[in-house]
Design goal:
five-stranded mixed beta sheet, single chain, 141 residues, alpha+beta
Length: 141
């Protein structure tokens, strides 16, 4: 397995991976939305490729200058249970630490609550918060 930085040429592959893994995508997961993400901190958007050059995992990290964020971590169902997600998270955490990040946050969709144990094993703890959002562009959700 090789970890590399995502490129926009891999857009279709990452969307298919996220869908196979059962992630809920939003209107910000368009090609244009991911292009904008790459302009900000491309080095935090990672993909894992197997020997056959198939994308088998991805994670979209970000850093706002204070906190790191983990978004859309997914491992292809055919490759789960092989420590790929842990290795991808380890690389993301190293990259965030290298740019001065001291705390990493993540959110889990209620439909994906089963991954909580995975994150617990990596040292993440549940924090009771109220999450609120407001879409300010057309095409909500």
């Amino acid at each position: 397995m090789r970890i590399e930085t995502f490129s926009l040429q891999q857009y279709e592959d990452v969307i298919q991976l996220w869908q196979r893994a059962g992630l809920q995508l939003s209107c910000s997961d368009t090609r244009e939305g991911l292009r904008k993400k790459l302009e900000r901190d491309a080095e935090l958007f990672l993909v894992a490729m197997n020997e056959e050059e198939r994308m088998i995992a991805a994670v979209m990290g970000s850093y706002d200058g204070r906190r790191g964020w983990v978004n859309h971590l997914a491992v292809d169902p055919d490759f789960q249970g092989q420590d790929i997600g842990s290795r991808l998270m380890d690389e993301l955490e190293k990259r965030l630490a290298n740019i001065g990040c001291e705390k990493i946050n993540l959110l889990i969709e209620p439909t994906n609550h089963g991954v909580q144990a995975f994150y617990n094993q990596l040292g993440y703890e549940r924090d009771e918060l109220i999450f609120m959002e407001k879409w300010i562009a057309s095409g909500e959700g």
